[in-house]
Amino acid sequence: MSLATTQVATRGAVAVRSVDKSYGNQQVLHEVDLDVAEGEVLVIIGPSGSGKSTLLRTINHLDKVDRGTISLDGELIGYKVRNGKLHERRESEILAQRTEVGMVFQNFNLFGHLTALQNIIEAPIYARKIPKAKALARAKELLARVGLADKAGAYPRQLSGGQQQRVAIARALALDPKVVLFDEPTSALDPELVTEVLEVIKDLAKSGTTLIIVTHEIGFARDVADRIIFMDSGRVVEQGTPNELMTNPQHERTKSFLSKVI
Ligand code: ADP
Ligand code: MG
Asked: Where does the secretion signal sit in this chain (predicted)?
């Protein structure tokens, strides 16, 4: 293997190792182990309260793990090893790491006082000090990519839920993240607006960006996922290709969950 080949950096590979997380005396993640490969589209399914959102939030250190580690392209998230021990990183380093992880929430979380375009350029300009002209040009490209080139000047309240979520996706992509996390991106939408958002995510999936998507849209999961994991009570119960998991689930809990959602 040539040096050039060995030095190609991975992009967006996530490794979760033996992660435990509790709130008070309730343990919500139990020894979660998960590998997401560069460019992979991983879908997480599971009942409400099974720890899906918590797992996503630990990936960008919005929630701190109690035990275990999470790394992105080999770099520990939120911690550093010093003298053989884990030490939490400085706030500035944590914020810098967070800019490598895009996040799309159920409720869009756009800034209501900013236009679509301003929402997208906010982080590039203030968190990464990208020159305004460059950030604007990129934001316009991203708006076009999500089919909203004509909505640059619109405020969130002037947009439908589906349009707001597409702006939120454009915003999540603005810093060219290594991985994008979606937490039930269509759960808050009226049924007729779901498809337009799923189409944007499918398009992104084809582009080779690593995606981790929590969703209850089982048909979409089947179309878009390279792999699906089923979580229950804070554990990864089962995982496989969409076909394996949907047509031949191994665990009773997976079967019972799927029988309710399909
Ligand atoms: P899911 O996304 O699968 O519905 P969550 O990760 O949101 O599950 O929640 C897992 C469990 O942790 C639930 O029992 C929930 O009530 C609890 N939980 C989540 N966030 C908090 C929090 N900030 N404080 C206390 N309990 C929480
Ligand atoms: Mg959730």
From this structure: none
Could you tell me the distance, in angstroms and rounded to a whole number, from the CA of residue 51 to the centre of ligand 1?
Answer: 6
Give nearest CA residue, ligand 1 atom 27. Answer: 23
Q: Is 23 in the pocket of ligand 1 (CB under 6 A)?
A: yes
**Which H, E and C letters describe 95-117, residue by residue?**
HHHHCCEEEECCCCCCCCCCCHH
Residue 40, burial from CB neighbour count under 10 angstroms (0-12, 13-18, 19+): buried
Cβ of 53 closer than 6 Å to ligand 1, yes or no, is yes
User: Could you tell me if the CB of 163 is within 6 A of ligand 1?
Assistant: no
* pLDDT tens string 112-149: 999 999 999 999 999 889 999 999 999 999 999 999 99
Kindly report the length of the chain.
Answer: 262
**Which candidate, 185, 23, 30, places its Cα nearest to that of 102?**
185
Q: Is the CB of 215 under 6 A from ligand 1?
A: no
Residues sharing a CB contact under 8 Å with residue 53, sequence separation 6 or more, in sequence order? 183, 214
* 185 Cα–ligand 2 center, Å: 10
Positions of the chain with pLDDT under 70: 1-10
